[in-house]
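Team,

Forwarding the record for the chain on the shared tracking sheet. I've put the sequence and predicted structure together so nobody has to dig through attachments.
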Amino acid sequence: MNKKVLILCTGNSCRSIIAEALINAKLEGIVADSSGVKASGKVNPNAKKLLEQKGIWKEKYHSKTIDKVINNAYDLVVTVCDHANETCPMFPKAVKVIHVGFEDPDGKGFEAFNQTFKEIDEVLLPKVIEALK
């Protein structure tokens, strides 16, 4: 049975989308969604370009607000920015929440997105696996 993970950040345009795509591509038996506490409504073009280059972009990835996912059942919620960690809502169903913060690459060059991708791959994915044990 698949475990469900929600990646939560502020804008849901970079870090959480990258994390969602990486989890869905690399972690067998785990399905990820992403959302923002103040979703921007758009995926950052550099994040999309990077995920396309890595071969893990899916058209279903888009920026969405927390109200679109709040009633879904998750096994784990991961906040990836300090603001989302501080404002993470209470979920109707009891759920484990962990915080693994990453610097926001938004507004920086493409290399910053590559670095964020690498950090999420190396730091976040093992923590998700550990938290779901």
